[in-house]
């Protein structure tokens, strides 16, 4: 957006030296206040509403300060419509979507010192570093707020967006401009700079806000994080401006030039540009130092005045960060070390069994409600029958071998401050009539046998699609946030439609025929409880918009066992199109053949996951369900975006032998980042083999097939490194 234009000294900005406020008469103050208020209001409309600024930012700020000083001396002038109490222009009515140029990824979590040590070991192994080689990290508090990305062009804030799903967020630019910690302009900034950080609310401001909300009869907030998120997403920027939001900067997205060579240096650069950065950020030299900082910050947690839920560790050297790269949804070079969960004791009132979309029988503890870490907990996971019996995954005792029984007093904690779990049992308070829990051998939903296969910790219903619980849960998963995420069609609506006899949704494809079936039934849906003409129209529109779907989201939405969002991304990136993926899975034979080798050759796809995917496409019932769904969809290609000049985009590459200048994991990561497919075996479809010393059968196979073979130096020259 263009800079505010500065008028000459005779213009409205009033650059002539003003009369000191203390010397103004009431009449002169009233006249000056009216003139400046009109100028500021006009500038607000031009800046926020029309993207056609009239005055420079410095002049605008000076006018606002002058206006505030006059109001401080003559409070009667501070009418309700004063620009000092307003921000921006009238709201647009809804947020538009923003596609992140650089995805806003989440972080992997660590929960103890062992996890941190493994994080360090993984990085060293990836980079080929010895255990005693120097490797510096930064450690900073993990703010419990709302992630925000701020895009500056030529030093001006032009766009602010929430994280959203990591790829697409909400445009909250007008609201972000009202936050005092967010500069409108940056001196000496790169031409393009996306600053990322966390919007939060401190404890004192949160308490005061809730008091004001209660006094006015408005809704109060459960915690500062919810208050911050709700305030930032207000459609009226003036409401956001009235909320005491703050912002810590700690990262960046798109850049036209580097901020620094190190993470610590980049944070210092952000601070010099005018951003608030966390003063507790420290430089550490290894896992032991990271753990010490974690302990120190945890001890200070209650005195900080704002909520944190852990400490984030990042490799300090930005060149190493680049080499380490990213997994499907998280960077390899960073991790969030969460604080230990808070604990509470309560009574276990019942153990219920829920049947999931894969048929797993999952026990759930129904608890007498108790507050744990500021959240009221009434349910907790019990994992499986071994966990209830006091046995671990390999048969070793957990909780000193104490089993869990209905009526027990149990200690509850929130793992990672999210999922409530049971940590311990107080045998001294166990009721005399408590008996060991007997895990069901049949499905409580359909009566089918519930079997536990060798090596599996979970008992599963054999009813398949005949089991209503599995069908319902698969549909709930299909419309969940990481999958099709259809507005107005959540878990509650799925349950309603599944039980409906007139307009049933029994499989995913039924969703996309709902509008046509409703029309055939004389639009009965709008007359049902919970629906009206507008809500039905919005639902049908939301369904229509999701007919075009990304390949990764479709694969994840199918609810295939072992296939999460990360593995769905891997499959989509490898095969690129639904036609290629469907054909490969249909032709694949578990344990043998070219398609199986290609599938299991994907870095991150093991044989268990691969067999699960192939099995689905060879089950007649499941395959027919998928075919009926796909007939309604327009499936976008799943290949990851790569540089337009990438010399290996779309090629299949095999690494063999010993690589001397990078680790095998690093080589695979770099190749995939450039759009190549990395396979573990050589076939006629292989485009390039990179062979190091000791290359054996793969090199011979490549030679016999006429596949191009190059050494590591040639590979590095090819990719420009």
Describe this structure in words.
A 5-stranded mixed β-sheet has the order 2-11-10-3-9. Strands 14-13-12-15-16 form a 5-stranded antiparallel β-sheet. A 4-stranded antiparallel β-sheet has the order 5-4-7-8. Mean pLDDT is 84; it is low at 1-16, 46-53 and 86-93. The chain folds into 6 domains: 21-85, Helix Hairpins, CATH 1.10.287.610; 109-338, DNA ligase/mRNA capping enzyme (D-amino Acid Aminotransferase, Chain A, domain 1, 2-Layer Sandwich); 343-451, Beta Barrel (OB fold (Dihydrolipoamide Acetyltransferase, E2P)); 464-546, 5' to 3' exonuclease, C-terminal subdomain (DNA polymerase, domain 1), CATH 1.10.150.20; 550-636, DNA polymerase, domain 1; 652-718, 3-Layer(aba) Sandwich (Rossmann fold), CATH 3.40.50.10190. The protein has 25 helices and 24 strands. The protein has 721 residues and is of the alpha+beta class.
Q: Can you describe this structure in just a few lines?
A:
The protein is of the alpha+beta class. The chain contains 25 helices and 24 strands.
List its traits.
single chain; 721 residues; alpha+beta; Helix Hairpins; D-amino Acid Aminotransferase, Chain A, domain 1; OB fold (Dihydrolipoamide Acetyltransferase, E2P); 6 domains; five-stranded mixed sheet; five-stranded antiparallel sheet; 25 helices; 24 strands; 35% helix; globular; disordered N terminus
Topology:
Blueprint: H1 26-49, H2 57-73, E1 97-99, E2 109-110, H3 113-127, E3 137-143, E4 146-153, E5 156-162, E6 168-170, H4 173-176, E7 192-200, H5 203-215, H6 224-232, H7 237-241, E8 246-255, H8 263-272, E9 282-284, H9 287-300, E10 308-315, H10 318-324, E11 334-338, E12 343-355, E13 361-372, E14 375-381, H11 385-389, E15 409-415, E16 419-425, E17 450-451, E18 460-461, H12 468-478, H13 491-499, H14 508-511, H15 514-520, H16 533-545, E19 548-550, H17 551-557, H18 565-575, H19 578-587, H20 594-600, H21 607-617, H22 620-630, E20 634-636, E21 652-656, H23 664-673, E22 677-679, E23 688-691, H24 697-705, E24 708-710, H25 712-718
Parallel strand pairs: 2-11, 19-20, 21-22, 21-23, 23-24
Antiparallel strand pairs: 1-6, 3-9, 3-10, 4-5, 4-7, 7-8, 10-11, 12-13, 12-15, 13-14, 15-16, 17-18
Helix pairs in contact: 1-2, 3-9, 17-18
């Amino acid at each position: 957006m263009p800079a505010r234009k500065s008028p000459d000294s005779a213009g409205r900005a009033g650059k002539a030296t003003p009369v000191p406020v203390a010397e103004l008469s009431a009449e002169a103050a009233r006249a000056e206040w009216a003139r400046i208020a009109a100028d500021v209001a006009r500038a607000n409309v031009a800046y926020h509403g029309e993207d056609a600024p009239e005055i420079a930012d410095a002049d605008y700020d000076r006018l606002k300060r002058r206006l505030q000083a006059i109001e401080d001396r003559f409070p009667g002038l501070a009418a309700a419509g004063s620009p000092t109490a307003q921000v921006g222009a009238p709201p647009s009515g809804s947020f538009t979507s923003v596609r992140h140029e650089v995805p806003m990824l989440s972080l992997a979590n660590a929960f103890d010192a062992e996890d941190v040590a493994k994080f360090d070991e993984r990085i060293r192994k990836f980079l080929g570093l010895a255990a005693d080689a120097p490797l510096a990290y930064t450690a900073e508090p993990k703010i419990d707020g709302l992630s925000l990305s701020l895009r500056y062009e030529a030093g001006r804030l032009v766009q602010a967006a929430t994280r959203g799903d990591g790829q697409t967020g909400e445009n909250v630019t007008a609201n972000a401009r009202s936050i005092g910690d967010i500069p409108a302009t940056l001196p000496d900034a790169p031409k393009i700079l996306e600053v990322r950080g966390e919007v939060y609310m401190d404890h004192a401001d949160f308490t005061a806000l809730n008091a004001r909300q209660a006094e006015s009869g408005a809704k109060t907030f459960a915690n500062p994080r919810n208050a911050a998120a709700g305030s930032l997403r207000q459609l009226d920027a003036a409401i956001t401006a009235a909320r005491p939001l703050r912002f810590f900067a700690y990262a960046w997205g798109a850049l036209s030039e580097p901020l620094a060579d190190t993470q610590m240096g980049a944070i210092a650069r952000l601070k010099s540009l005018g951003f608030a950065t966390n003063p507790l950020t420290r430089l550490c030299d290894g896992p032991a130092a990271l753990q010490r900082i974690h302990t120190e910050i945890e001890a200070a947690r209650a005195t900080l005045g704002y909520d944190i839920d852990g400490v984030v560790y990042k490799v300090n050297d930005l060149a190493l960060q680049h080499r380490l790269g990213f997994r499907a949804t998280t960077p390899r070079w960073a991790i969030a070390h969460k604080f230990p969960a808070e604990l509470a004791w309560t009574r276990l009132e019942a153990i219920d069994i829920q049947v999931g979309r894969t048929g797993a029988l999952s026990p759930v503890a129904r608890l007498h409600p108790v507050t744990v870490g500021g959240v009221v907990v009434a349910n907790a996971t019990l994992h499986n029958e071994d966990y209830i019996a006091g046995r671990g995954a390999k048969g070793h005792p957990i909780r000193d071998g104490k089993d869990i029984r209905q009526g027990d007093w149990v200690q509850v904690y929130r793992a990672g401050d999210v999922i409530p779990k049971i940590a311990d049992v107080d045998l001294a308070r166990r009721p005399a009539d408590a008996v060991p829990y007997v895990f069901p051998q049949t499905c409580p939903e359909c009566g089918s046998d519930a079997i536990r296969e060798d090596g599996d910790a979970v008992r599963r219903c054999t009813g398949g699609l005949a089991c209503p619980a599995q069908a319902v849960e698969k549909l709930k998963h299909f419309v969940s946030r990481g999958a099709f995420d259809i507005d107005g069609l959540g878990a509650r609506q799925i349950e309603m439609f599944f039980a409906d006899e007139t307009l049933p949704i029994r499989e995913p494809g039924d969703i996309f025929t709902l509008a046509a079936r409703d029309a055939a039934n004389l639009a009965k849906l709008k007359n049902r409880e919970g629906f009206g003409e507008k809500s039905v129209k919005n639902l049908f529109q939301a369904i229509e918009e999701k007919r075009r779907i990304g390949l990764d989201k479709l694969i994840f939405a199918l609810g295939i066992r072992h296939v999460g969002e990360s593995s769905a991304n891997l499959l989509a990136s490898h095969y690129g199109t639904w036609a290629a993926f469907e054909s490969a899975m249909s032709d694949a034979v578990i344990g043998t053949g070219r398609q199986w080798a290609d599938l299991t050759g994907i870095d991150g796809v093991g044989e268990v996951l691969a067999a699960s995917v192939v099995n689905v496409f060879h089950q007649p019932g499941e395959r027919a369900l998928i075919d009926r769904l796909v007939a309604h969809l327009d499936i976008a290609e799943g290949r990851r975006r790569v540089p337009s000049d990438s010399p290996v985009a779309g090629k299949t590459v095999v690494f063999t032998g010993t690589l001397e200048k990078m680790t095998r994991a690093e080589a695979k990561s770099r190749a995939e980042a450039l759009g190549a497919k990395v396979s573990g075996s050589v076939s006629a479809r292989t485009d390039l083999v990179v062979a190091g010393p000791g290359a054996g059968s793969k090199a011979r196979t490549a030679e016999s097939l006429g596949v191009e073979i190059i050494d590591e130096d040639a590979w590095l020259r090819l990719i420009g490194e």
